[in-house]
User: What shape does this take?
Amino acid sequence: MSIDIETAARVAKLARIRVEEDELPALAQEFNNILGFIEQLQEVDVEGVEPMTSVTPMRLKRREDGVTEGGMAKTVLSNAPDAREGFFAVPKVVE
Amino acid sequence: MSELTKLKIAEARDALRKGDVTSAELTEACLSAIEGAGKLNAFVHDTSEIARRQAEVADSRIKDGDAPSMCGIPLGIKDLFCIKGVPSQAASNILGGFKPEYESTVTTQLFGAGAVMLGKLNMDEFAMGSSNETSCYGNAVNPWRRGNDDEALTPGGSSGGSASAVSADLCLGATGTDTGGSIRQPAAFTGITGIKPTYGRCSRWGIVAFASSLDQAGPMTKDVRDAAIMLEAMCGHDPKDSTSADLAVPNFEAMLTGDIKGKTIGIPREYRMDGMSDEIDALWAEGRKMLEDAGAKVVDISLPHTKYALPAYYVIAPAEASSNLARYDGVRYGHRAKLSQGDGITEMYEKTRAEGFGDEVKRRVMVGTYVLSAGFYDAYYNRARKVRTLIKKDFEDVFAQGVDAILTPATPSAAFPLGMEVEDPVQMYLNDVFTVTVNLAGLPGISVPAGTDKQGLPLGLQLIGRPWEEGDLLNCAYALEQSAGFVAKPSKWW
Assistant: This one.
Protein backbone atom coordinates (compact mmCIF):
# COMPACT_ATOMS: atom_id res chain seq x y z
CA MET A 1 0.00 0.00 0.00
CA SER A 2 1.60 3.20 -1.09
CA ILE A 3 0.25 6.69 -0.56
CA ASP A 4 0.53 9.04 -3.51
CA ILE A 5 0.40 12.81 -3.46
CA GLU A 6 -3.26 12.84 -4.38
CA THR A 7 -4.15 10.61 -1.42
CA ALA A 8 -2.07 12.75 0.92
CA ALA A 9 -3.98 15.81 -0.26
CA ARG A 10 -7.30 14.04 0.24
CA VAL A 11 -6.39 12.99 3.79
CA ALA A 12 -5.28 16.53 4.67
CA LYS A 13 -8.60 17.79 3.34
CA LEU A 14 -10.56 15.23 5.36
CA ALA A 15 -8.61 16.20 8.48
CA ARG A 16 -9.28 19.90 7.77
CA ILE A 17 -5.58 20.75 7.94
CA ARG A 18 -4.20 23.01 5.22
CA VAL A 19 -1.08 21.53 3.61
CA GLU A 20 0.64 23.57 0.92
CA GLU A 21 1.14 21.94 -2.47
CA ASP A 22 4.94 21.81 -2.15
CA GLU A 23 4.72 20.01 1.23
CA LEU A 24 2.62 17.14 -0.09
CA PRO A 25 5.41 14.88 -1.40
CA ALA A 26 7.20 14.92 1.99
CA LEU A 27 3.89 14.25 3.75
CA ALA A 28 3.11 11.31 1.45
CA GLN A 29 6.57 9.91 2.23
CA GLU A 30 5.95 10.20 5.99
CA PHE A 31 2.62 8.43 5.66
CA ASN A 32 4.33 5.65 3.75
CA ASN A 33 6.94 5.22 6.49
CA ILE A 34 4.31 5.01 9.20
CA LEU A 35 1.98 2.78 7.20
CA GLY A 36 4.93 0.55 6.32
CA PHE A 37 5.47 0.16 10.06
CA ILE A 38 1.84 -0.72 10.83
CA GLU A 39 1.67 -3.06 7.84
CA GLN A 40 3.05 -5.80 10.16
CA LEU A 41 -0.46 -6.16 11.56
CA GLN A 42 -1.44 -7.99 8.39
CA GLU A 43 0.69 -10.97 9.56
CA VAL A 44 -1.49 -11.63 12.61
CA ASP A 45 -4.17 -14.31 12.43
CA VAL A 46 -7.27 -12.49 13.66
CA GLU A 47 -9.80 -15.02 12.43
CA GLY A 48 -12.72 -15.14 14.86
CA VAL A 49 -11.27 -12.45 17.15
CA GLU A 50 -13.61 -9.70 18.32
CA PRO A 51 -12.33 -6.14 17.93
CA MET A 52 -11.88 -4.61 21.39
CA THR A 53 -14.51 -2.09 22.38
CA SER A 54 -13.72 -1.77 26.08
CA VAL A 55 -10.50 -2.69 27.82
CA THR A 56 -12.19 -3.36 31.16
CA PRO A 57 -15.12 -5.76 31.23
CA MET A 58 -17.39 -3.16 32.80
CA ARG A 59 -20.74 -2.09 31.54
CA LEU A 60 -20.89 1.61 30.82
CA LYS A 61 -22.77 3.45 33.53
CA ARG A 62 -26.21 4.74 32.66
CA ARG A 63 -27.51 7.98 34.00
CA GLU A 64 -30.80 9.75 33.98
CA ASP A 65 -31.26 11.81 30.84
CA GLY A 66 -31.82 15.11 32.58
CA VAL A 67 -30.35 18.59 32.74
CA THR A 68 -27.69 18.75 35.43
CA GLU A 69 -26.10 22.08 34.66
CA GLY A 70 -27.03 24.95 32.41
CA GLY A 71 -27.93 28.59 32.12
CA MET A 72 -24.32 29.68 31.79
CA ALA A 73 -24.04 31.02 28.26
CA LYS A 74 -21.49 33.64 29.29
CA THR A 75 -19.22 31.03 30.85
CA VAL A 76 -19.54 28.78 27.81
CA LEU A 77 -18.60 31.65 25.51
CA SER A 78 -15.80 33.02 27.68
CA ASN A 79 -13.01 31.39 25.66
CA ALA A 80 -14.46 31.95 22.19
CA PRO A 81 -12.19 33.73 19.68
CA ASP A 82 -15.29 35.54 18.43
CA ALA A 83 -18.57 35.68 20.37
CA ARG A 84 -21.38 38.10 19.65
CA GLU A 85 -24.76 38.64 21.25
CA GLY A 86 -24.60 35.40 23.18
CA PHE A 87 -23.48 33.24 20.24
CA PHE A 88 -20.29 31.82 18.76
CA ALA A 89 -19.54 33.78 15.61
CA VAL A 90 -18.14 32.13 12.47
CA PRO A 91 -17.67 33.17 8.84
CA LYS A 92 -20.76 33.00 6.68
CA VAL A 93 -21.78 29.36 6.21
CA VAL A 94 -24.86 29.68 3.96
CA GLU A 95 -24.94 31.93 0.92
CA MET B 1 15.68 26.42 52.47
CA SER B 2 16.70 24.36 49.46
CA GLU B 3 16.91 21.22 51.62
CA LEU B 4 13.15 21.41 52.06
CA THR B 5 12.52 20.78 48.36
CA LYS B 6 14.46 17.51 48.64
CA LEU B 7 11.88 16.10 51.05
CA LYS B 8 9.72 13.22 49.93
CA ILE B 9 5.96 13.49 50.26
CA ALA B 10 5.86 11.08 53.22
CA GLU B 11 8.64 12.95 55.02
CA ALA B 12 7.02 16.32 54.40
CA ARG B 13 3.65 15.01 55.57
CA ASP B 14 5.15 13.82 58.85
CA ALA B 15 7.10 17.07 59.34
CA LEU B 16 3.99 19.14 58.62
CA ARG B 17 1.91 17.17 61.10
CA LYS B 18 4.59 17.48 63.77
CA GLY B 19 4.77 21.20 63.17
CA ASP B 20 8.46 21.04 62.19
CA VAL B 21 7.71 22.87 58.95
CA THR B 22 4.79 24.75 57.42
CA SER B 23 3.33 24.35 53.99
CA ALA B 24 4.08 28.03 53.41
CA GLU B 25 7.79 27.34 54.02
CA LEU B 26 7.78 24.28 51.79
CA THR B 27 5.96 26.20 49.07
CA GLU B 28 8.36 29.17 49.19
CA ALA B 29 11.34 26.80 49.01
CA CYS B 30 9.89 25.14 45.91
CA LEU B 31 8.99 28.45 44.28
CA SER B 32 12.54 29.72 44.67
CA ALA B 33 13.94 26.41 43.37
CA ILE B 34 11.68 26.81 40.32
CA GLU B 35 12.81 30.38 39.84
CA GLY B 36 16.42 29.22 39.76
CA ALA B 37 15.76 26.38 37.32
CA GLY B 38 14.72 28.24 34.19
CA LYS B 39 17.28 26.27 32.16
CA LEU B 40 15.29 23.07 32.72
CA ASN B 41 12.19 24.69 31.19
CA ALA B 42 10.07 22.34 33.30
CA PHE B 43 7.53 24.85 34.62
CA VAL B 44 5.74 26.78 31.88
CA HIS B 45 2.91 28.58 33.70
CA ASP B 46 3.46 30.27 37.04
CA THR B 47 0.69 29.83 39.60
CA SER B 48 2.64 31.05 42.64
CA GLU B 49 -0.26 33.19 43.83
CA ILE B 50 -2.55 30.18 43.91
CA ALA B 51 0.21 28.16 45.60
CA ARG B 52 0.64 30.70 48.40
CA ARG B 53 -3.09 30.86 48.97
CA GLN B 54 -3.43 27.07 49.02
CA ALA B 55 -0.45 26.74 51.38
CA GLU B 56 -2.06 29.14 53.82
CA VAL B 57 -5.30 27.15 53.82
CA ALA B 58 -3.35 23.90 54.19
CA ASP B 59 -1.47 25.24 57.18
CA SER B 60 -4.66 26.13 58.97
CA ARG B 61 -6.14 22.71 58.17
CA ILE B 62 -3.05 21.04 59.59
CA LYS B 63 -3.32 23.20 62.71
CA ASP B 64 -6.93 22.07 63.10
CA GLY B 65 -5.89 18.44 62.86
CA ASP B 66 -7.71 17.97 59.53
CA ALA B 67 -4.77 16.92 57.40
CA PRO B 68 -5.05 14.23 54.74
CA SER B 69 -1.69 12.90 53.50
CA MET B 70 -1.42 15.36 50.62
CA CYS B 71 -2.31 18.38 52.73
CA GLY B 72 0.23 21.16 52.24
CA ILE B 73 2.34 19.19 49.72
CA PRO B 74 3.59 21.37 46.81
CA LEU B 75 3.07 19.72 43.43
CA GLY B 76 3.60 20.47 39.77
CA ILE B 77 0.66 19.85 37.42
CA LYS B 78 1.11 18.68 33.84
CA ASP B 79 -0.28 21.21 31.36
CA LEU B 80 -2.75 18.55 30.13
CA PHE B 81 -4.91 19.03 33.25
CA CYS B 82 -7.58 21.73 33.05
CA ILE B 83 -7.33 24.12 35.98
CA LYS B 84 -10.04 26.71 36.41
CA GLY B 85 -8.81 30.15 35.42
CA VAL B 86 -5.24 28.97 34.70
CA PRO B 87 -3.77 28.56 31.20
CA SER B 88 -4.22 24.89 30.25
CA GLN B 89 -3.09 24.37 26.71
CA ALA B 90 -1.64 20.86 26.42
CA ALA B 91 1.60 22.48 25.19
CA SER B 92 -0.18 23.42 21.96
CA ASN B 93 -0.52 26.77 20.23
CA ILE B 94 -4.04 25.83 19.23
CA LEU B 95 -5.08 26.22 22.88
CA GLY B 96 -3.18 29.49 23.27
CA GLY B 97 -5.02 31.76 25.72
CA PHE B 98 -7.44 29.03 26.84
CA LYS B 99 -8.40 29.35 30.50
CA PRO B 100 -10.84 26.60 31.47
CA GLU B 101 -14.02 27.47 33.32
CA TYR B 102 -13.84 24.10 35.04
CA GLU B 103 -11.40 21.88 36.89
CA SER B 104 -10.24 18.33 36.19
CA THR B 105 -11.50 15.71 38.63
CA VAL B 106 -7.97 14.55 39.49
CA THR B 107 -6.83 18.05 40.45
CA THR B 108 -10.12 18.70 42.25
CA GLN B 109 -9.37 15.65 44.39
CA LEU B 110 -5.75 16.64 44.99
CA PHE B 111 -6.69 20.18 45.96
CA GLY B 112 -9.55 18.85 48.09
CA ALA B 113 -6.93 16.81 49.95
CA GLY B 114 -4.99 20.02 50.53
CA ALA B 115 -2.27 19.76 47.86
CA VAL B 116 -0.61 22.96 46.64
CA MET B 117 -0.17 23.73 42.91
CA LEU B 118 3.15 25.44 42.13
CA GLY B 119 2.60 25.75 38.38
CA LYS B 120 1.88 24.00 35.09
CA LEU B 121 4.48 21.63 33.66
CA ASN B 122 5.95 21.24 30.21
CA MET B 123 5.03 18.23 28.06
CA ASP B 124 4.85 17.06 24.46
CA GLU B 125 2.07 18.73 22.48
CA PHE B 126 -1.20 16.90 23.27
CA ALA B 127 1.01 14.26 24.97
CA MET B 128 2.21 13.09 21.56
CA GLY B 129 5.92 12.43 21.81
CA SER B 130 8.61 10.62 23.77
CA SER B 131 11.17 13.40 24.25
CA ASN B 132 9.25 16.57 25.15
CA GLU B 133 10.44 18.06 21.84
CA THR B 134 7.00 18.66 20.34
CA SER B 135 6.01 21.24 22.98
CA CYS B 136 4.99 24.76 22.00
CA TYR B 137 7.01 25.93 25.02
CA GLY B 138 10.27 24.43 23.71
CA ASN B 139 12.12 21.42 25.10
CA ALA B 140 12.12 20.49 28.76
CA VAL B 141 15.63 19.44 29.78
CA ASN B 142 16.76 16.47 31.86
CA PRO B 143 18.62 17.49 35.05
CA TRP B 144 20.85 14.44 34.50
CA ARG B 145 23.95 14.68 32.29
CA ARG B 146 26.47 12.15 31.05
CA GLY B 147 29.33 12.61 33.50
CA ASN B 148 30.96 15.96 32.76
CA ASP B 149 29.52 16.17 29.25
CA ASP B 150 27.25 19.21 29.11
CA GLU B 151 25.15 18.03 26.16
CA ALA B 152 21.46 18.54 26.97
CA LEU B 153 19.49 15.31 27.34
CA THR B 154 15.78 14.70 26.99
CA PRO B 155 13.78 14.08 30.18
CA GLY B 156 11.59 11.77 28.05
CA GLY B 157 8.00 12.38 27.14
CA SER B 158 5.32 13.14 27.09
CA SER B 159 5.42 14.01 30.83
CA GLY B 160 8.92 15.48 30.42
CA GLY B 161 8.37 18.61 32.50
CA SER B 162 6.92 16.53 35.34
CA ALA B 163 9.92 14.19 35.30
CA SER B 164 12.45 17.01 35.13
CA ALA B 165 10.79 18.95 37.96
CA VAL B 166 10.56 16.00 40.36
CA SER B 167 14.05 14.78 39.58
CA ALA B 168 15.54 18.26 40.11
CA ASP B 169 13.66 18.71 43.43
CA LEU B 170 11.61 21.65 42.18
CA CYS B 171 8.48 20.07 43.67
CA LEU B 172 7.68 17.08 45.88
CA GLY B 173 5.64 15.27 43.26
CA ALA B 174 3.88 15.88 39.95
CA THR B 175 0.91 14.67 37.99
CA GLY B 176 1.56 12.86 34.72
CA THR B 177 -0.53 11.11 32.12
CA ASP B 178 0.29 7.95 30.22
CA THR B 179 -1.17 6.88 26.87
CA GLY B 180 1.71 4.70 25.62
CA GLY B 181 4.39 5.17 28.27
CA SER B 182 4.31 8.91 28.98
CA ILE B 183 4.67 8.51 32.76
CA ARG B 184 6.95 5.47 32.89
CA GLN B 185 9.48 6.38 30.18
CA PRO B 186 10.24 9.90 31.52
CA ALA B 187 10.35 8.51 35.08
CA ALA B 188 12.98 5.99 33.94
CA PHE B 189 14.99 8.69 32.13
CA THR B 190 15.18 10.89 35.22
CA GLY B 191 15.63 8.38 38.06
CA ILE B 192 12.19 8.81 39.62
CA THR B 193 9.12 6.60 40.15
CA GLY B 194 6.00 6.77 37.98
CA ILE B 195 2.88 4.62 38.01
CA LYS B 196 0.12 4.34 35.44
CA PRO B 197 -2.87 2.78 37.21
CA THR B 198 -5.43 0.40 35.71
CA TYR B 199 -7.55 2.03 33.00
CA GLY B 200 -10.53 3.52 34.84
CA ARG B 201 -8.81 4.12 38.20
CA CYS B 202 -8.36 7.86 37.66
CA SER B 203 -11.08 9.97 36.13
CA ARG B 204 -10.19 11.40 32.73
CA TRP B 205 -12.65 14.27 33.17
CA GLY B 206 -10.97 17.61 32.56
CA ILE B 207 -7.76 16.07 31.19
CA VAL B 208 -7.26 17.13 27.57
CA ALA B 209 -8.00 13.94 25.60
CA PHE B 210 -5.44 12.28 23.31
CA ALA B 211 -6.57 8.64 22.90
CA SER B 212 -9.46 8.09 25.28
CA SER B 213 -9.30 4.29 25.45
CA LEU B 214 -5.64 4.45 26.50
CA ASP B 215 -5.19 7.69 28.51
CA GLN B 216 -4.68 7.42 32.27
CA ALA B 217 -3.34 9.88 34.82
CA GLY B 218 -0.87 8.91 37.52
CA PRO B 219 1.67 10.31 39.97
CA MET B 220 5.39 10.93 39.34
CA THR B 221 7.28 10.94 42.62
CA LYS B 222 10.65 10.47 44.30
CA ASP B 223 9.91 6.96 45.55
CA VAL B 224 7.35 4.16 45.69
CA ARG B 225 5.82 5.20 49.02
CA ASP B 226 5.14 8.68 47.64
CA ALA B 227 3.60 7.12 44.53
CA ALA B 228 1.25 5.10 46.76
CA ILE B 229 0.23 8.17 48.77
CA MET B 230 -0.34 10.42 45.79
CA LEU B 231 -2.05 7.76 43.66
CA GLU B 232 -4.60 7.15 46.39
CA ALA B 233 -5.50 10.85 46.38
CA MET B 234 -5.88 10.88 42.58
CA CYS B 235 -8.05 7.73 42.23
CA GLY B 236 -11.74 7.21 42.66
CA HIS B 237 -15.03 6.89 40.91
CA ASP B 238 -16.31 9.90 39.00
CA PRO B 239 -19.80 9.98 37.46
CA LYS B 240 -18.48 12.54 34.93
CA ASP B 241 -16.25 9.89 33.29
CA SER B 242 -18.33 6.95 32.09
CA THR B 243 -15.23 4.72 31.98
CA SER B 244 -14.26 5.53 35.56
CA ALA B 245 -14.39 2.43 37.78
CA ASP B 246 -16.89 2.31 40.61
CA LEU B 247 -14.52 0.50 42.95
CA ALA B 248 -13.28 1.31 46.42
CA VAL B 249 -9.76 2.79 46.53
CA PRO B 250 -7.59 0.88 48.99
CA ASN B 251 -5.03 2.47 51.31
CA PHE B 252 -2.10 1.77 49.00
CA GLU B 253 0.53 2.96 51.46
CA ALA B 254 -0.65 0.46 54.08
CA MET B 255 0.02 -2.33 51.58
CA LEU B 256 3.75 -1.52 51.39
CA THR B 257 5.17 -4.30 53.54
CA GLY B 258 8.06 -5.18 51.27
CA ASP B 259 7.11 -8.82 51.75
CA ILE B 260 6.76 -10.55 48.38
CA LYS B 261 7.45 -14.11 49.54
CA GLY B 262 5.41 -16.56 47.53
CA LYS B 263 4.60 -14.07 44.77
CA THR B 264 5.16 -15.21 41.20
CA ILE B 265 6.96 -12.80 38.87
CA GLY B 266 6.96 -13.44 35.12
CA ILE B 267 9.81 -12.56 32.77
CA PRO B 268 8.42 -12.28 29.22
CA ARG B 269 10.84 -13.63 26.64
CA GLU B 270 9.41 -11.44 23.86
CA TYR B 271 10.72 -8.33 25.64
CA ARG B 272 14.29 -9.36 24.84
CA MET B 273 14.58 -7.16 21.75
CA ASP B 274 17.13 -7.44 18.97
CA GLY B 275 19.92 -4.96 19.50
CA MET B 276 18.95 -4.29 23.11
CA SER B 277 21.89 -2.80 24.99
CA ASP B 278 23.89 -5.09 27.30
CA GLU B 279 23.36 -2.63 30.11
CA ILE B 280 19.58 -2.86 29.89
CA ASP B 281 19.83 -6.62 29.67
CA ALA B 282 22.13 -6.75 32.71
CA LEU B 283 19.82 -4.48 34.71
CA TRP B 284 16.88 -6.71 33.86
CA ALA B 285 18.81 -9.78 35.06
CA GLU B 286 19.73 -7.95 38.27
CA GLY B 287 16.10 -7.05 38.84
CA ARG B 288 15.16 -10.69 38.45
CA LYS B 289 17.79 -11.64 41.02
CA MET B 290 16.61 -8.97 43.45
CA LEU B 291 13.04 -10.22 43.36
CA GLU B 292 14.23 -13.83 43.75
CA ASP B 293 16.35 -12.85 46.75
CA ALA B 294 13.30 -11.15 48.24
CA GLY B 295 11.52 -14.52 48.14
CA ALA B 296 9.50 -14.27 44.93
CA LYS B 297 9.25 -17.14 42.50
CA VAL B 298 10.48 -15.96 39.10
CA VAL B 299 9.27 -17.76 35.99
CA ASP B 300 9.79 -17.31 32.26
CA ILE B 301 6.61 -16.48 30.44
CA SER B 302 5.49 -15.77 26.90
CA LEU B 303 3.41 -12.84 25.65
CA PRO B 304 3.33 -13.90 22.00
CA HIS B 305 1.72 -10.79 20.46
CA THR B 306 4.16 -8.27 21.99
CA LYS B 307 5.72 -7.52 18.62
CA TYR B 308 2.42 -6.21 17.30
CA ALA B 309 1.69 -3.84 20.17
CA LEU B 310 3.45 -0.80 18.74
CA PRO B 311 1.95 -1.09 15.25
CA ALA B 312 -1.52 -1.62 16.79
CA TYR B 313 -0.95 1.39 19.03
CA TYR B 314 0.04 3.54 16.05
CA VAL B 315 -3.31 2.78 14.46
CA ILE B 316 -5.56 3.04 17.52
CA ALA B 317 -4.00 6.10 19.17
CA PRO B 318 -3.95 8.27 16.02
CA ALA B 319 -7.49 7.13 15.14
CA GLU B 320 -8.79 8.23 18.52
CA ALA B 321 -6.68 11.40 18.38
CA SER B 322 -8.08 12.39 14.99
CA SER B 323 -11.54 12.14 16.47
CA ASN B 324 -10.73 13.84 19.80
CA LEU B 325 -8.81 16.68 18.17
CA ALA B 326 -11.61 17.45 15.74
CA ARG B 327 -12.92 19.81 18.44
CA TYR B 328 -10.09 22.29 17.80
CA ASP B 329 -11.83 24.21 15.08
CA GLY B 330 -11.24 27.84 16.03
CA VAL B 331 -14.83 28.33 17.16
CA ARG B 332 -15.19 27.66 20.86
CA TYR B 333 -11.74 28.18 22.39
CA GLY B 334 -8.11 28.78 21.61
CA HIS B 335 -6.56 29.97 18.40
CA ARG B 336 -8.40 31.11 15.27
CA ALA B 337 -6.43 31.94 12.11
CA LYS B 338 -6.71 35.39 10.56
CA LEU B 339 -8.84 34.96 7.49
CA SER B 340 -8.48 36.50 4.04
CA GLN B 341 -11.23 38.22 2.11
CA GLY B 342 -13.69 35.62 0.87
CA ASP B 343 -12.55 32.82 3.22
CA GLY B 344 -15.42 30.65 4.39
CA ILE B 345 -15.77 28.26 7.28
CA THR B 346 -13.73 25.46 5.67
CA GLU B 347 -10.79 27.82 5.16
CA MET B 348 -11.17 28.88 8.77
CA TYR B 349 -10.92 25.28 9.97
CA GLU B 350 -8.03 24.41 7.66
CA LYS B 351 -5.93 27.50 8.38
CA THR B 352 -6.62 27.42 12.12
CA ARG B 353 -5.56 23.78 12.41
CA ALA B 354 -2.52 24.23 10.14
CA GLU B 355 -1.31 27.14 12.29
CA GLY B 356 -2.28 25.77 15.67
CA PHE B 357 -1.04 22.16 15.53
CA GLY B 358 2.63 21.20 15.44
CA ASP B 359 4.05 18.70 12.93
CA GLU B 360 3.77 15.55 15.05
CA VAL B 361 0.18 16.30 16.00
CA LYS B 362 -0.75 16.98 12.37
CA ARG B 363 0.94 13.75 11.33
CA ARG B 364 -0.99 11.69 13.85
CA VAL B 365 -4.31 13.38 13.15
CA MET B 366 -3.87 12.68 9.44
CA VAL B 367 -2.72 9.08 9.96
CA GLY B 368 -5.78 8.62 12.17
CA THR B 369 -8.01 10.16 9.55
CA TYR B 370 -6.56 7.80 6.95
CA VAL B 371 -7.00 4.58 8.97
CA LEU B 372 -10.60 5.53 9.73
CA SER B 373 -11.48 6.53 6.17
CA ALA B 374 -13.79 4.51 3.96
CA GLY B 375 -12.03 1.48 2.51
CA PHE B 376 -9.30 1.33 5.18
CA TYR B 377 -11.34 1.09 8.37
CA ASP B 378 -11.42 -2.71 8.32
CA ALA B 379 -7.89 -3.24 7.08
CA TYR B 380 -6.31 -0.96 9.68
CA TYR B 381 -8.57 0.17 12.50
CA ASN B 382 -10.64 -2.96 13.02
CA ARG B 383 -7.62 -5.20 12.56
CA ALA B 384 -5.69 -3.18 15.15
CA ARG B 385 -8.57 -3.54 17.61
CA LYS B 386 -8.58 -7.30 17.07
CA VAL B 387 -4.84 -7.42 17.69
CA ARG B 388 -5.47 -5.41 20.85
CA THR B 389 -7.86 -8.14 22.02
CA LEU B 390 -5.08 -10.69 21.46
CA ILE B 391 -2.52 -8.59 23.35
CA LYS B 392 -4.84 -8.35 26.32
CA LYS B 393 -5.48 -12.09 26.15
CA ASP B 394 -1.72 -12.74 26.32
CA PHE B 395 -1.70 -11.05 29.72
CA GLU B 396 -4.91 -12.75 30.89
CA ASP B 397 -3.36 -16.11 30.05
CA VAL B 398 -0.24 -15.55 32.16
CA PHE B 399 -2.25 -14.12 35.05
CA ALA B 400 -4.46 -17.23 34.88
CA GLN B 401 -1.28 -19.33 35.20
CA GLY B 402 -0.68 -17.67 38.57
CA VAL B 403 1.66 -14.84 37.63
CA ASP B 404 1.22 -11.88 40.01
CA ALA B 405 3.43 -9.34 38.28
CA ILE B 406 5.68 -9.06 35.24
CA LEU B 407 9.19 -7.59 35.22
CA THR B 408 10.53 -5.84 32.11
CA PRO B 409 12.93 -3.03 31.28
CA ALA B 410 11.16 0.36 31.30
CA THR B 411 12.90 1.74 28.21
CA PRO B 412 15.22 0.40 25.51
CA SER B 413 17.94 2.96 26.41
CA ALA B 414 18.91 5.68 28.87
CA ALA B 415 18.00 9.32 28.14
CA PHE B 416 19.24 10.44 24.73
CA PRO B 417 20.38 13.90 23.58
CA LEU B 418 17.75 16.43 22.60
CA GLY B 419 17.49 16.91 18.85
CA MET B 420 18.65 13.37 18.07
CA GLU B 421 15.80 11.37 16.65
CA VAL B 422 13.09 13.77 15.63
CA GLU B 423 13.94 13.22 11.97
CA ASP B 424 12.32 9.80 11.89
CA PRO B 425 8.97 9.49 13.67
CA VAL B 426 9.00 5.68 13.64
CA GLN B 427 12.42 5.62 15.39
CA MET B 428 10.92 7.80 18.13
CA TYR B 429 7.91 5.49 18.47
CA LEU B 430 10.22 2.62 19.46
CA ASN B 431 10.82 4.31 22.82
CA ASP B 432 7.48 2.97 23.96
CA VAL B 433 8.16 -0.65 23.01
CA PHE B 434 8.10 -1.94 26.62
CA THR B 435 5.36 0.31 27.95
CA VAL B 436 2.69 0.45 25.24
CA THR B 437 1.40 -3.12 25.78
CA VAL B 438 0.28 -2.07 29.26
CA ASN B 439 -1.96 0.70 27.89
CA LEU B 440 -3.40 -1.57 25.23
CA ALA B 441 -4.29 -4.13 27.90
CA GLY B 442 -5.51 -1.48 30.39
CA LEU B 443 -3.17 -2.77 33.12
CA PRO B 444 -1.29 -0.96 35.88
CA GLY B 445 2.45 -0.47 35.29
CA ILE B 446 5.15 1.18 37.37
CA SER B 447 8.66 2.32 36.54
CA VAL B 448 11.21 2.13 39.36
CA PRO B 449 14.77 3.48 39.12
CA ALA B 450 17.05 0.49 39.50
CA GLY B 451 20.55 1.47 38.45
CA THR B 452 22.74 3.67 36.27
CA ASP B 453 24.49 3.10 32.97
CA LYS B 454 28.23 3.50 32.57
CA GLN B 455 27.82 7.18 31.85
CA GLY B 456 26.00 7.63 35.12
CA LEU B 457 22.48 8.01 33.70
CA PRO B 458 19.54 6.42 35.52
CA LEU B 459 17.83 3.30 34.17
CA GLY B 460 14.43 1.99 35.19
CA LEU B 461 12.69 -1.34 35.47
CA GLN B 462 8.99 -1.77 34.86
CA LEU B 463 6.62 -3.96 36.83
CA ILE B 464 3.22 -4.76 35.33
CA GLY B 465 0.38 -5.84 37.62
CA ARG B 466 -3.01 -7.46 37.47
CA PRO B 467 -5.96 -5.18 36.80
CA TRP B 468 -7.05 -3.23 39.93
CA GLU B 469 -4.17 -4.68 41.94
CA GLU B 470 -2.16 -1.46 42.21
CA GLY B 471 -1.61 -2.17 45.91
CA ASP B 472 0.14 -5.47 45.22
CA LEU B 473 2.03 -3.92 42.34
CA LEU B 474 3.25 -1.04 44.49
CA ASN B 475 4.35 -3.50 47.16
CA CYS B 476 6.32 -5.46 44.59
CA ALA B 477 7.88 -2.22 43.36
CA TYR B 478 8.67 -1.33 46.97
CA ALA B 479 10.56 -4.61 47.41
CA LEU B 480 12.47 -3.95 44.18
CA GLU B 481 13.25 -0.40 45.27
CA GLN B 482 14.60 -1.60 48.61
CA SER B 483 16.91 -4.13 46.95
CA ALA B 484 18.03 -1.75 44.21
CA GLY B 485 18.81 0.99 46.73
CA PHE B 486 18.91 3.65 44.03
CA VAL B 487 19.74 6.96 45.72
CA ALA B 488 21.74 8.83 43.05
CA LYS B 489 20.69 12.39 42.26
CA PRO B 490 21.71 14.65 39.39
CA SER B 491 24.38 17.20 40.32
CA LYS B 492 23.05 20.71 40.05
CA TRP B 493 24.28 22.62 36.96
CA TRP B 494 21.15 24.66 36.23
About this structure: The first strand of chain B starts at residue 43 and ends at 46. Chain B touches chain A through 74 residues (CB under 8 Å). Residues 377-400 of chain B form the longest helix (24 residues). Chain B has one domain: 1-494.
